[in-house]
Design brief:
There is one protein chain. Helices cover 46% and strands 23% of the residues. 39% of the residues are buried. The chain is an alpha/beta fold. A 7-stranded mixed β-sheet has the order 3-2-1-4-5-7-6, with helices on both faces. The longest helix has 19 residues. Strand 2, helix 5 and strand 3 form a beta-alpha-beta unit. The protein has a single domain, classed as Rossmann fold, CATH 3.40.50.150. The site of S-adenosylmethionine has 21 residues, from helix 1 and helix 4.
């Protein structure tokens, strides 16, 4: 599965940003801004890991938000697809952003030491991971105590307008994909959106022992942000 996902993103990499804006009517940018705001822990310095960073848009939003809030941030932007990472590097260079470090790696086995990060973000990638349980345990391992996960993704909207979304997702998006880019990839992407089970994700996060798990629906539930905190270590009393 992950090899297929990797090849799929190589096929669409060059059109990925443009197609995101078209498919979401530009709203994906606002969703990332919202996730970036959620990532601002009450600490002056933040070590952030953006998992499945793709072309780097969420990592960049995190930097912009940190700058606004006067925080010192370093983002490690990880992805397993070199074609997406090349575009991320190009974009960061063009924008003269120096506090994002692009890293090649797997979301399920990042290779970082335990307790390395204050915050872990991930945007629009959960549907692609082979095993969400393994992914959540990996985030918990590399987070510092009191650290936060901020997971942004799209899912089946929760609205009476479901029929409209169904038409948009299953007819218009694949047609746009076919016209300009790659129909199979966009058919896969929309069906993965429809199948994604937010409540199952919530249960995995709770079962992993995170505190205060919360899902915030955005734009009639077409997207959501899940946040949760890794518990602080309890000190033994004598
Ligand atoms: C839909 S894109 C999201 C990109 C970016 N986060 C954004 O906000 O636009 C999904 C990304 O997940 C990456 N990905 C999927 N599975 C992965 C894995 N197991 N490890 C690392 N990256 C993965 C893909 O290579 C792709 O770049």
């Amino acid at each position: 599965m992950s090899q297929e996902i990797k090849s799929m993103f190589s096929r669409i990499a060059h059109h990925y940003d443009k197609m995101n804006r078209i498919m979401s009517l530009g709203i994906d940018t606002l969703w990332r801004k919202r996730a970036a705001k959620e990532s601002m822990l009450d600490r002056d310095t933040l070590q952030v890991l953006d998992i499945a960073t793709g072309t780097g848009d969420l990592a960049i939003e995190v930097c912009k938000e940190a700058e606004k809030e006067g925080k010192d941030v370093h983002v490690h932007a990880l992805d397993f697809n070199e074609d997406m990472l090349k575009l991320a590097k190009k974009k960061l260079k063009k924008m003269s952003i120096r506090n994002v470090e692009v890293i090649s790696g797997d979301a399920l086995k990042t290779g970082f030491k335990e307790r390395s990060f204050d915050v872990i973000t991930s945007g629009f990638a959960l549907r692609n991971f082979d095993d969400l349980g393994t992914f959540i345990m990996e985030t918990k391992r590399v987070l510092k105590p009191g650290g936060k996960i901020v997971l942004l993704d799209v899912a089946r909207p929760e609205t009476k307008l479901l029929k409209f979304f169904q038409l948009y997702y299953f007819k218009i998006i694949p047609a746009l994909g076919a016209r300009y880019y790659n129909e199979d990839a966009y058919t896969y992407l929309v069906s993965s959106i429809w199948k994604f089970d937010k409540e199952r994700l919530m249960k995995i996060v709770k079962d992993a022992g995170f505190r205060d798990p919360k899902i915030t629906n955005l734009t009639l539930g077409a997207a959501f942000v899940l946040t949760a905190t890794k518990p602080n270590v309890k000190r033994k009393s004598n």
